[in-house]
Amino acid sequence: MQPRPAEVAEIFLTESRALESDERRRLRRRGVSESALDRDPGQESAQIRAARVVTTEHHFDFAEACDPQSIPVFVACARNWRGVASDIVAFDTDGRYAVSWLGRESFLGAHHLFAPRLGNPLRVFRDRWAWLLGDRDGVVIVDWRRAPALLEGVTIGVDDLEFGRVLRRRLTRPPPPIVVRRSAESSA
Fold it and tell me: What is the DSSP letter of 78?
């Protein structure tokens, strides 16, 4: 049975730990603001935390510190478009990957999808580090397989032309295969 939102939030807090002062300093040296580490705009207590995990291709499991297969990561509570805790996303300290715990959310910052933007585009960040450097004011894609359907019809804002081209290519869904049935051919 999948955990309910309250259970996801509890697991996030119990299986991860607050950032230590040296981790915070390292992130600050990379340009991440204190506010980005401690809160997500429009959300309460959405801290970036640390954990040790074991990853698979699309998911991760929390691990004990003594597990030789585990790796150190940062974790963020992924909230759905309503702002409710629904998943946890782990990302490595070098920014090479992000993987979800349950596979429920396609974005970090999903509550921004339907938030009032007063005509402004939805800001989509290239990766987790750009998202943190941008004070988490927008979304970063975690699941590229589901993102095209969720972003359909949304005006997107990006910080550079190259990433805009990447998004256009990766978010454009190909048309479905269309075949002419034999019986339709013979009746025409």
Answer: E
- For residues 5-44, one letter each, b for 16 or more C-beta atoms within 10 angstroms of the residue's C-beta and e for the rest, the string is eeebbebbeebbeebeeebbeebeeeebeeebbebbeeee
User: What's the token pair of residue 103?
Assistant: 């596979």
Tell me the C-alpha to C-alpha distance, in Å, between residue 4 and each of 61, 87, 98: 17, 10, 22
- How many Cα atoms within 13 Å fall on the side-chain side of residue 125? 21
Domain ranges of the chain: 5-173
Buried b (16+ CB within 10 A) or exposed e, 119-141: eeebbbbbbbbbbbbbebebbbb
> Could you write out the three-class secondary structure of 126-175?
CCHHHHHHCCCCCEEECCCCCHHHHHCCCCEECCCHHHHHHHHHHHCCCC
Query: Side chain identity at 31, as an amino acid letter?
Result: G
Q: Are 5 and 52 in contact (CB under 8 A)?
A: no
Are 36 and 48 in contact by the 8 Å Cβ rule? The answer is: yes
The helix (run of H) or strand (run of E) holding residue 52 is strand 49-55
pLDDT along the chain (188 residues), means of 10: 86 93 93 89 75 87 88 90 88 77 90 85 93 92 92 94 95 89 64
